[in-house]
Design a protein that fits this description.
Elements lengths: L11 H8 L10 E10 L5 E4 L6 H16 L14 H5 L2 E2 L2 E6 L8 H5 L10 E5 L6 E5 L2 H12 L3 E3 L2 E13 L5 E7 L7 H13 L4 E5 L15 H6 L9 H12 L4 E5 L17 E2 L6 H4 L7 E2 L4 H15 L6 E5 L5 H5 L2 H10 L3 H18 L3 E5 L1 H4 L10 E4 L6 H5 L4 E4 L2 H4 L25 H5 L15 E8 L9 H5 L4 H8 L11 H17 L10 H4 L10
Parallel strand pairs: 1-3, 2-4, 4-6, 9-10, 9-18, 10-11, 11-14, 14-15, 15-16, 16-17, 17-18
Antiparallel strand pairs: 1-8, 5-6, 5-8, 7-8, 12-13
Helix pairs in contact: 2-5, 6-8, 10-13
Length: 561
């Protein structure tokens, strides 16, 4: 199967605008639509014509049928579909949807396809829905591609007066992602999130074709991850015995994600952001709970691993290795951000070790990272780090190491010039926690460090390839939006993340409109409204983007309307 973005789909915007139907997020690579009505009768069935269909494909089909029956989303127009009554009454019933794999394709589970190395996952699909009511077809090269196509299929349908219908038939979609990495990052250490909050988030991620859950599971404030080799870390480091992630919890989240086409990238941030380890191993942590904390850390509490000490190096490599070996993902993040050098300059143990060995602090960090990354590489894992490891410390890293650019979007150039593959996660576009004011006590006029609030539309203007040469484009694996949770918890998870996190989903799946034109905020808003309302129908408390008056009148609230 060959998927192309073709000029023959230039009519897309006109057709969608004329019919008043605003659906599909992310927008497919290529799309043809008509103006005929189709309905879904009670006899509608999904035929899985895949030999020995894996359990998770069958589960996905059942979930698709549930969405079709229960979304009950009224079209976002005045009257919520009342004016569609005549078209619905004369609509042709769609007999069914047939799922097939392209000839020669190997049958494997969605879960196994979802965790293949980046660049080798087959997510492309073709969806054809005739206007005469004959069976629609969904074809892909893998079950993962079928899953992506099912996701698209569910977004085409609306509900009015007990009828599920579309006004766009015939429909032909040929689709594929522009980038292999499309993620969302969640910090579950500043505040704890129960597993049901994580699985609900994974569901929402799957609806917009995000494929990587970057799980920042530990930090300086808490260590909620239970590790069988080091049980004391969670015993002493979790906020309470109930606020932990057991090994079974982690495996459940990983398997739940994989069945929805999502890989879990776990992060144990080291050697910074590790003060909590001092509650179990005080001798391993420098400047533990030192005051004033701002001298020794970016946020309280102070404390960083004594990475120059061999015993600490061995402990950290063992910890990371013992966790990584339980995970199916080919990737694992060792973090590496926001190291405070004052902590080590003033630490007697570190300075004695450096003097005895003749190493610099940079040398010691290089040795430490070689050990932790060596343990991962020995397991067939690819290390992932934050940008400081490359730009501030210039460590000797494997060429396969993936670097997350976060401090500024401008830093991407410097990282790719060193030859590393990158994930775009810039705080100036993609940090969802920005703009909420200071969370520190005794600071009534303080602001968040990354002000202002990052609207979906600002995030949507991000160009992943800005300032790069064409030869460097392949080094951009994709990107992710992130939520650091100093001021977030289960109570506001949905509205602070959704639908804003869907903006990057389209940047990295679609990259441009089907016509080949650049992504456009004005064109995108009605479609984002649509997926936001659909998320609410499915139990995700996504925040409103505008007054409903605006949502029902696309473009009526545009600045120049």
């Amino acid at each position: 199967m060959i998927l192309l973005r073709s000029p023959r789909f230039l009519a897309f915007a006109t057709l969608i605008g004329a019919s008043g139907v605003w659906a599909l997020w992310p927008i497919p690579a290529s799309l043809e639509t008509g103006t005929s009505a189709l309905t879904l009768p009670s006899s509608f069935a999904i035929d899985v014509a895949v030999p020995n269909a894996p359990w998770d494909l069958l589960q996905a089909v059942a979930q698709t049928q549930s969405y079709l029956e229960n979304d009950k989303l009224g079209r976002l127009v005045v009257g919520r579909g009342a004016n569609d009554s005549h078209a619905i009454q004369n609509g042709t019933p769609l007999s069914g949807l047939k799922l097939t794999l392209a000839e020669g394709s190997q049958v494997a589970s969605i879960s196994s396809e979802a965790v293949k190395p980046l660049g080798t996952r087959s997510e492309e699909y073709t969806l054809v829905i005739p206007q005469d009511g004959s069976q629609a077809t969904l074809t892909a090269n893998s079950t993962l591609g079928l899953y992506r196509g099912l996701t698209t299929f569910t977004q085409l349908w609306y509900y009015y007066n007990d009828v599920v219908y579309t006004l766009l038939a015939p429909i032909t979609i040929v689709d594929e992602p522009a980038y292999p990495y499309r993620g969302f990052a969640l910090d579950t250490a500043r505040n704890y999130f129960p597993v049901p909050d994580l699985t609900r988030t994974l569901d929402a991620m799957s609806w917009v074709k995000l494929n990587t859950f970057h799980w920042h599971i530990t930090d300086g404030q808490s260590f909620p991850l239970q590790v069988s080799l080091y049980p004391e870390l969670a015993d002493n480091g979790a906020y309470s015995p109930q606020e932990v992630y057991t090994e079974d919890d982690v495996q459940y989240v990983v398997s739940y994600a994989a069945a929805r086409g999502i890989d879990v990238l776990l992060e144990i941030d080291t050697p910074g952001h590790t003060a909590i380890i001092g509650t179990s191993y005080p001798d391993y942590v420098a400047c533990l709970d030192a005051s004033p904390w701002a001298t020794y850390a970016n946020e309280p509490p102070a404390g960083q691993l004594r990475f120059a000490v061999p015993e600490v190096v061995n402990f950290t490599a063992s910890l990371i290795s013992s966790v990584a070996q339980t995970l199916v993902s080919k990737y694992f993040s060792t973090g590496g951000d926001e190291l405070n050098t004052n902590c080590y300059v003033n630490d007697t143990v570190t300075q004695q070790q450096l003097n005895q060995t003749g190493m610099t602090l940079n040398d010691a960090l290089n040795t430490f990272t070689q050990a932790t990354h060596g343990a991962l590489i020995a397991q067939g894992k690819t290390p992932v780090v934050w940008e400081e490891m490359v730009l501030d410390w210039n460590l000797t890293l494997s060429n396969e190491t993936i670097v997350m650019v976060w401090i500024s979007s401008a830093d991407a150039v410097a990282v790719v010039e060193k030859g590393f593959r990158i994930v775009q996660a810039p705080s100036d576009y993609f940090y969802l926690d920005c703009g909420a004011g200071a969370w520190l006590g005794d600071d009534p006029t303080g602001n968040s460090w990354c002000d202002p609030f990052k609207t979906w539309s600002e995030s949507y203007t991000f160009d992943p390839l800005a300032n790069l040469t064409e030869a460097q484009y392949p080094l951009v694996l994709g990107g992710e939006q992130l939520l650091w949770t100093e001021q977030s918890g289960p109570q506001n998870l949905d509205p602070i993340v959704w639908p804003r996190a869907a903006s990057s989903a389209e940047i990295f799946w679609s990259a441009r409109q089907p016509s080949g034109a650049p992504l456009n905020v004005s064109e995108a808003l009605p479609r984002l409204q649509d997926i936001r309302y659909r998320m609410v129908q499915r139990g995700v408390n996504a925040i409103q983007l505008q007054p409903q008056w605006c949502a029902l009148r696309p473009h009526a609230c545009d600045l120049d309307a």
